[in-house]
Design a protein that fits this description.
heterodimer, A: 114 residues, mainly beta, two-stranded antiparallel ribbon, 1 helix, elongated, B: 232 residues, alpha+beta, 5-stranded antiparallel sheet, 4-stranded antiparallel sheet
């Protein structure tokens, strides 16, 4: 997948970091210092459908030409996460116990078109 | 947003950057709290001392090293491999003791478990860590009772009783996994541990446990989280 930069309109990953100190959560979340709440945004015209990012192999390029020439089914697809990883947290719970847990699929590492 | 700027994905007018930031932060908060099954961010009434936390984390790491699956040992394949997205979320919990009633030869300790561990939680293991402060090297029999509230919640019943021999100062551990599982199964959150020595023995518990010797329970739990099955 690719990271959004400049004014790219195509499907890409936008980075967004939530600093726990900035939102006043640093007293109950011991580690980490923030959460990379990246997300996917951008266009997925038909000829982009089904590729993980813009790193197209030759096969994919051909596939794209075929798709682009049959634009009658003008159906865009969706820009979605294609790689995600857990968010590991060490925090105080409501009884002031210390809890460590890994929340699955919380951080988006790559985006692509469905 | 400036006139004519629109969101590339949905075609609606793009949000002004400041508004977009607020929306994303609110979304991040809601997402983390919901995944931790917390209605709101916890208000910390008593932060754990650094000394107690570091000691507990060191002891947990040492315990993991002891029980780590070494190459020669078979991995327990009956436990479903925890891949993200399988709908199983594991927790490691450190619950530090709250002092309860005490006499010259007995003391009660309370451990509160998180309300988030509901009935669908499985306690994989729970170990009580106690530090014995023994003035003189003699063997002392100590009775350790695990108490839990009875069905009325008014009286305490003895869930289990163990005799421990204290020879010298240092840490001792006791498996309390079944007791904690029973507690959570009954919807209770408080485990009471009573430590008692015979009348004529001096108590091997530090009257004012120093920070880094504070008793704690280290538990590993697994909660079945309702998870969307994505059909591809």
């Amino acid at each position: 997948g690719i990271d959004c930069s400049g004014d790219s309109q195509m499907c890409c990953r936008k980075e967004f970091f939530v600093d726990f100190k900035e939102i006043g959560w640093e007293d109950w979340i011991i580690q980490p210092e923030g959460y990379h709440m990246n997300y996917c945004a951008g266009l997925c015209p038909l000829h982009m459908a089904g590729i993980p990012g813009l790193a197209a192999s030759f096969h994919t390029a051909v596939l794209n030409l075929i798709k682009a020439n049959h634009a009658d089914a003008a159906m865009d697809s969706c820009c979605v996460p294609t790689q995600r990883r857990p968010l590991s947290l060490l925090y105080y719970d409501r009884e002031s116990n210390i809890v460590k847990t890994d929340i699955p699929d919380m951080i988006v590492d790559a985006c692509g078109c469905t | 947003a400036p006139k004519g700027v629109w969101c590339p994905a949905c075609g609606l007018a793009a949000l002004a950057p400041a508004t977009q930031r607020d929306v994303l932060i609110a979304l991040a908060k809601q997402s983390i709290l919901s995944k931790l099954h917390l209605p709101d961010r916890p208000n910390i009434t008593k932060a754990t001392s650094r000394g107690a936390l570091l000691t507990a984390l060191r002891r947990m790491r040492a315990q993991h090293m002891d029980t780590a699956v070494s190459p020669g040992m078979t991995r327990d394949n009956s436990v479903p491999h925890l891949r993200p997205g399988l709908g199983l979320q594991e927790y490691e919990i450190l619950s530090f003791a709250e002092s309860g009633s005490s006499t010259s030869h007995s003391v009660r300790l309370h451990f509160l478990f998180t309300q988030e561990l509901s009935g669908s939680t499985e306690i994989l293991q729970a170990t009580l860590h106690l530090f014995w402060a023994v003035p003189s090297p003699r063997t002392r029999p100590v009775t350790v009772r695990l108490l839990q509230p009875d069905t009325t919640g008014l009286n305490m019943t003895v869930a289990s009783e163990t005799q421990m021999e204290v020879q010298r100062a240092g840490w001792a551990t006791l498996d309390v996994g079944q007791a904690v599982q029973n507690l959570i199964g009954q919807g209770s959150q408080r485990l009471t541990v009573e430590l008692e020595v015979a009348e004529d023995w001096e108590s091997p518990f530090l009257a004012g446990h120093s920070d880094s010797h504070w008793p704690f329970v280290a538990a590993q739990a697994r909660a079945r989280t309702p998870h969307r099955v994505q059909r591809r």
